[in-house]
Amino acid sequence: MLGTVYAVLFYAATAVLLFGLVVKAWTYGRIPAPLRIPTAPAPKTRAGVFWRMVREVAFFESLYKSNKWIWLFGWTFHMSLWLVLARHLRYFTQPVWGWVELVQPFGTYAAFTMMLGLAGLWARRVVVERIRYISSPSDHLMLALLFGIAVSGAMMRFVAHTDIVAVKSFMLGLMRFRIGDLPPDPTLMVHLFLVAVLMMVFPVSKLLHAPGVFFSPSRNQVDNSREKRHVAPWSAKLES
User: How far from chain centre, in Å, is Cα 84?
Assistant: First the structure.
């Protein structure tokens, strides 16, 4: 019964996540960009834009230039999150990929740096007056949700161990549309429930900045307004 409940929950969460991301990406892609508005200094070639996006996604270049201590907490959290996600791939692959095995020790302790980064970002919304003024309850809710996921995951690894063999069997079964048994571990139940909630709220939350950065005209545009006239697709149709 427990396995069936969580199987239905994760199937629903996956459907909401994928559908929401597709709809948002389609919506972002259709928004017209009538002007060249890349943030200066901007690259003048498509290759330059590509490398700018790489620096932005991998190193948070613009945040580093604007605020060093927020960049430190933000970059620490996001990079730790990537390591944790990479470590969790072992539950969805059989046999486990070689590079996933290599990141296991790093992903294990990345839970602590992930919590450290979240704590710094949360403190920013409480301590910094101008940030506190524009913070909404949903901002705190998202941070609490991520923090709860990190804490419950770390507890299963360092405090109350769960049957990871059974968990992997359950996850592999879900990928093959076979519902198996799930260990009746309270910490595991909380962890999986919070993950499912995060998946469902992701497409309608501010966390959508993850894919949204690729659609930002201030980042993905070439600064060639002097060399070439920029005509938005909808404007070109009107002119023709």
Answer: 12
